[in-house]
Each structure stands twice: as C-alpha cells, then as structure tokens.
Amino acid sequence: MIESPELLMSRTDEPGKKSNSGREKTTILVVDDSPTSRMFLTQLLRDAGHRLLVAGDGAEALALVRAEHPDVVITDVLMPLMDGYEFARQLRADPSIARTPIIFHTAAYEQREARALASSCGVFYILNKPAQPAELLRTIKAVLKEAILPAPAVSEKNFDRDHRRLLTDKLSEKVAQLEAALGESRKKEILLLQTVEETVKAEQALEQSNKDLLRKNQQMQSFYHIVSHELKTPLTSAREFVSIVMDGLAGPLNETQQEYLGIARESCNRLRVCINDLMDATRLETGKLTLDWKPGSLAGLIQKLVTVLGPVAVRKQITLTQEVQPDLPDFPFDENRLMQVLVNLLNNALKFTAANGHVTVTAGDAPDHPGHVQVCVKDTGCGLLSTEVERIFERLYQVPNSDGSNGPGVGLGLYISRELVRSHGGKIWVESEFGKGSTFCFVIPKEKPSEAIHVLVVDDDPSVRNLMHRSLELEGFQVTTAENGIVALEKMRQELPDIVIVDLVMPKMDGAETLKQIRQNWGLLPVIILTGFPDKENMRRAMEFSPFTLLAKPCPMEQLAQTIRSLQPLKASGDDGRPTNRPPRRAKQTMQTEN
Questions:
Q1: Which residues are bridge partners to 376 per DSSP?
Q2: Gap between the Cα atoms of 361 and 301, Å rounded
Q3: Does residue 5 have a pLDDT over 50?
Q4: Which residues contact 2 (CB under 8 A, 6 or more apart)?
Q5: Residues 6 or more apart in contact with residue 125 via CB below 8 angstroms
Q6: Residue 574 confidence (pLDDT) above 50
Q7: Is the pLDDT of residue 72 over 90?
C-alpha cells in the first residue's frame, strides 16, 4: 500500500463512520500510478464527504479491495505491473469481491474494442481523464444505486487474446505517433542546420560588408582632408591678395571697386570657415584632433567674445549680454576649441534673432552636475520645431529656411561643437520653443578627464556583465555596465563612453534599436556588437546604422581588448597623453559603475 498523505489521512476515517450530515461515508478506492491524479481525486472526493483509500497499481489495489471491501473502485487503465483490465478481470474472478463496482478513469483506450474488453470485465462506466468534478460525483452516485451482478466468466485465453490485441494496437498507435514526431523533429533539425548555415554566411557577409564600409569611410575622410588642404592654400593666397588690393598697396581704388573686393573677401572668409569645419570634422572622425589642455579663465573667454561680437549685435539691433558667476575658478580646457564652440553658438543666436531681440550668455557651476561648469547661450529668436531639435547636432544637418532651402554653410558647426564638448568630457543640448527662442547649453568638468578608455557593456545577462566588467578592468579599461538599451542610453547621457559593447538580443530595447539611438544622438561613436546568435531581422536593422564591429560570443578577452584598442588607437597608445576626438571620461570621482 502506498504510504501517501492521502492514505494516511484516509485511515483516520473508520469504516462505517458517519459524515457531518449523519449519513455513513462511502469508501472509495482510487487506483492510479500518477501522484497528481491521485491527489486530484482524493481531494475532490474527500471534500464530497467520502472515505478514501489509494493504490498505485492493480496488484496493490487487489490486496486493498480484499482487505477493506470499498464501495467503489476508481482506477486508471494504463499502469505498471498490472493494468486496469487485468485488475478488473481478477477482481471479478474472486467471489468475495466480485460485486465491487469499478469505474475506469483514463485518458487512453477509448476505441470500441477497449470498451468491449472493459464490458467483458464487468466495467460499464468509463470517464475521460481528467473528469469534471460534477460528472465524477454523478457517476459514483449512479454506480452506488445499481445492484452490481458478477460479470460473466471470461475465459483467460480469450481475455489474454483480446487484451494482447488491444495492447498491440495501442503500441502500434504510439509507435506511429513517435515516428511522426521523430519525422517532424528531423525536419526541424534540417531547418535549424540550414538556418545556422545561412546565419554563418550572413555573419561572414556582414563582417566583410562592415570592413568595406570602414574602408570606404576612411577613404572618404582621407579625401575630405586632402581636398580641404588643397583648397585652403590657394584660398588663403586669394584672400591675402584681395586684402592687399583693398589696402591700396596696388594703387588707388574707387568706391565700387572697394565694394566688390569687400564682397570677394567676405566670400573668401565664409569659404575658409567651411573648409576649416570640414577639416575639423575629418580630424574628429579619424581620431586626429587633439586638445591643448591649459588652465584658463572661462569668464575671461566669454568677456572677450562678447566684446568682439558686440558690433555685430549692434548692427542687428540685438542686445548681447553676459551673466557669469563671479567666483568661477580657472580650470584646464582648450581655449581655442572652447572659443570655437562659443563663437558657433553665439553666431547662430545672432543669426536667428530678429531686431530688438536679446541674446544672453550665462556661465557658472552646473546645478545638476557636481564638479562641472555649465554655459548657456539663450536667444529670443525664431526657435526650433521638435523635429529640428532631435536632429540639430547631426553632421551636415541644417535648419531649413521658410521656403525649404538651406542657408549658408555646410551644416557642420553644431556637429563639431558637440564633438568638441564631448572631447572635453562634457555634453551639449538644446531647449527650444518654436516662435519663442532657443537655449543651447553645455557642461564640462573642472578637472581634466581620465585618459583610460571608457567602455560601456550592455548585456541582459548578469553573469556576462560581471565577467566582462572584471576582465576589462584587468586589461586597464574603465568599465560601466547596463542591463538593456534603455538603461545604457540614460547612462550615456550622464557620462559618454569611448566605446559601447552591446548584445543584439535584449528585452525592453534590443541591440539594433540601441545602435539606432546611438547613431542619432552620438554620431559615429565606436560600437561593438557582441552576440551569440545574430538573428537575421535584428542584423538587418542593425546594418541600417553601421558601421559597427561584429564579434561572436563567446569572444576571447584578448581579442576583445585588442579590438577595443584598435578602435581607440591614439588613446590606447597615449599619444602625448592628450585625448582624441572620442569623448574621454569625466573625473574618477564622478564615475558610475554597476557592481
């Protein structure tokens, strides 16, 4: 007998004991090799006020019937040692227990032959497993009302033949089901192998395409650099000769000649600005732009610029003012590059502000970024649309005129300003309301940023994040981690890394969408996609925002470290200890890492 909780509880119900309603309890034997099915039946029947016995196979059930004489037996059919049919046959063959009612409760043997064999054993009630509680209770009630007569004697020979045939048919059915399932499994295996082969081919093609894109990008940047140099030399000569003629060194000029030469010189100046922007953009994207870090006065720099641009504001009837924190200390920055950022912001503010408007430059401690200085240029100009705010810092983007055309310039000024601010370890943003004006702000640290390469690892697997965090730190990198793209983007807004390593398949925001956001907000920031299964659709989406470097999981740490250094060559080699165009880390005390 099975020593189970059901049986131990049922043993407390003595034969003949009455229920709370005053009626004698019915004794029911539950026979099933499945503990779950036994638990279901015993709980249901005990709640209905019955006394329960349980057994795990036919042989054990026969012994219980002879010892306890239950009122009803509910038995499964397919069981080890002795199945339901053999149990019923032997029960009917024993005169002392032959009248015991039997209910088959089974998920198998529902065909006509099975029911005929059950009837020959004196079993006339068959319930499909799992039976509905109401149906089961109705069946028990019906069985108890009937007078159970002994079943006609069944010859053992005929029973064995019919039983064997039934078992053989059922076995054949199971074999057929297994063969069908095996066939489906083989088809899926073939499809999986084909998918793996296609994925490998796609990965190889993607890797080659990535190399081609990088090579073409390098060639394009080299072309820009060469063309810029070739244009700058003759342009400088042309401008100088125009200035010489305007100064009267080549003879006297009349007013018309002076006017025309002035237009020519102004055109040379605009073209020189465009060439310088193109050269700076090329240096930024090839990692060749370096900063000259020296302690300086930001307040003095702003005062100088407001003085220089004052006449321009007066001509346009615009009020240009400054509000600088009095005790703002000196700190290290590249004065020429920061001047380039401020000139760009101030020129744009004066350009898009109408007469009688106001442009204000403010500088002081950053309220939301301890250890940083915040500079803002606020105007009362035309403002920006929300779609323009999203793209304003993109390379080559220009705010269109009212007629849809682009203004003068090549659309690199704000892009270069953003990259120069990042090179100082800071960030830049804009707040604008169309028709009311814009405020461009940037923050930079008061201390020179760390020169170690800052790596952001984005992976939803905590073990992968922890392993890469420890391993990359041992390689000398500064490491931050994030569990998905949403968290990664938020951390990047707080502190921009030099390189992002991102998994392709992640919850909330996957790698392809993360790469898209990085390209839209941070341009060509180096990205390594590290994935164990490059899904076709995700890879297709990621390719729209290439270039990126693709590595397969698991990737040897030496290979990963070498790849990171190859994407940050100047910073990795030291290069006179000066940071490159890639945004360096802020001071160590502001570092945020996930342990």
A1: 362, 441
A2: 11
A3: no
A4: 54, 55, 56, 60
A5: 101, 102, 103, 104, 139, 142, 143
A6: no
A7: yes
